[in-house]
Amino acid sequence: MGRFEKGPQLGSGGSGVVFRARDTITDDTVALKELNPKVKAPQRELLLARKISHPNVCRTHDLYIEDGRTLISMEFVDGETLRSLMERSGPLPVDQCLQIVRQILNGLEAAHRKGIIHRDLKPGNIMIARDGTVKIMDFGHSRIVDQSPDPYLTNSNIEGSRGYVAPEQAMGLVTDERTDLFSVGVILYEMVSGKRMGRVAPAQIPGVPPFVEAAILQCLAMEPSRRFASISMLREALAGPRRYRPAALYASILLPGLVIAVGIWQMQRPPVAPAAPPVSTVVTELPAVAVVFDGQVGNAFANALVQTKKVRVVDRTEVERLLSELRREKKQMDDASAQRIGRVVGAKYFLVVNAQVSQGQIRINARLIETETTEVKVAEGVGGDVADGEKLAVQLAGLVAEKAGSLK
After folding, report:
1. Residue 31's closest CA among 50, 67, 1, 4?
2. For residues 206 and 198, is the Cβ–Cβ distance under 8 A?
3. Do 317 and 361 lie in a common domain?
4. Are 46 and 117 within one domain?
5. Which residues pair with 197 in a beta bridge?
6. Each residue of 347-398: pLDDT tens digit?
7. Is 236 in a helix, a strand, or coil?
8. Picking from 38-42, 147-151, 228-232, 341-345, which range would have the lowest pLDDT averaged per residue?
């Protein structure tokens, strides 16, 4: 093979065969993958994957063309695949599953930050090193997130591994970060249950904590909008009962602000008679709310929502990203734009709050709007001196939270 001395075969899949090899120039032991000629993976994406540097990603060194063959040299990991571990051990303890999936999420997040989605996550592409480090392998099907359908994919030519690819990828539609989260859900389901997932997502997963079950089922939602909007949101869900870490209140001059609060849909599933009464944390779970704001009024409002204990404030990353896109496009934030954001993040409601300042007086208005119907569910407003802006925001948050907490 020219530069490489090929050793024993380490594994194979639809995208190619992997060998242990020695790099004759550096004398390093590497994993060398010979790509299947039928795989139409753009070299641009493969070369970009080389730039991902993270302890939980198997480093891609370089791409070579030798004798008409496409070769990728990668970091050699001394260990076994997650598939091998699962076949050897059966269902894994929940704590071990969470340790593994957290590392998968860390590596996947590094790729997503580069704008790269993996699109072929499966137990066979996850390595467990001897020291317990988890590494994601094989970015052969990766793509840059560009919001366009896959030009290489048809219904009869699915890139990725059947049983792990998300529905939108299987149909050749637009894929994004949420596509990878579907695969993570399948992997976690198989780890905790010891079973392969069928064509239809399970309605329940016996024997696991409710928060783990809920996270898996949300990952497995057929529609991307019903999944977690970001890795950070999934990571937070897998941390157990959610704990909000409030942002610090600013104490300078109040400015007109904008708040968009989004009540995140929990994945609906068929009712199942429980074997035992559910624990109180499940019965009293608060509506999840993602908050984005500009200005001090918005900051005070967001923190006040938490203090009411009527709603649960969750990660703001995805909504902030969408707002940034609107600003770059120089589009105004109106109800239509807020509705679009609500749909993208899978929100049943969006809450628009704005503040107007005039002649030393401030007026803060809030409207809670149902995403699909644009029906206003809650409309409240308060006014007073600018100097009392934060107090007014706290008062308004209480009014809104009281009514929002009773909505289904």
Report:
1. 4
2. no
3. yes
4. no
5. none
6. 667 777 777 777 778 888 888 777 778 888 888 889 988 777 778 888 888 8
7. helix
8. 147-151
> 350, 379, 349: which is closest to 365 by C-alpha?
379
Report the pLDDT value the prediction gives residue 213, as an integer from 0 to 100: 93
- Give the number of other Cβ atoms within 10 Å of residue 299's Cβ: 22
Question: Cα torsion for 1, 30, 165, 70, to the nearest 10°?
Answer: -20
Distance separating alpha carbons of residues 240 and 237, to the nearest angstrom: 6
Q: Which of 44, 75, 106 is the last residue of a domain?
A: 75
Do 230 and 316 lie in one domain? The reply is no
In total, the chain counts a number of residues equal to 408
In a domain, 204, yes or no: yes
Q: 360 and 276: one domain?
A: yes
pLDDT tens-digit readout, 280-305 = 223 334 555 655 554 455 566 767 77
Highest mean pLDDT, choosing among 3-12, 42-51, 335-344, 360-369: 3-12
d(CA 144, CA 148): 10
Residue at 248 is within a domain: no
Query: What is the total count of domains within the chain?
Result: 3
Residue 263 lies in domain: 258-404
**242 in any annotated domain:** no
CATH number of the domain enclosing 68: 3.30.200.20
Which structure tokens are listed for 258? 């904008």
Task: For residue 140, give the CATH number of its domain.
Answer: 1.10.510.10
Q: Which residues are catalytic?
A: 120
> Got the DSSP string for 312-364?
EEE--HHHHHHHHHHHHTT----HHHHHHHHHHTTEEEEEEEEEEEETTEEEE
Other beta carbons less than 10 A from residue 267's beta carbon: 18
Judge contact between 317 and 230, C-beta under 8 A.
yes
Residue 74 is predicted with a pLDDT of: 85
Q: Looking at the structure, do residues 229 and 292 belong to the same domain, yes or no?
A: no
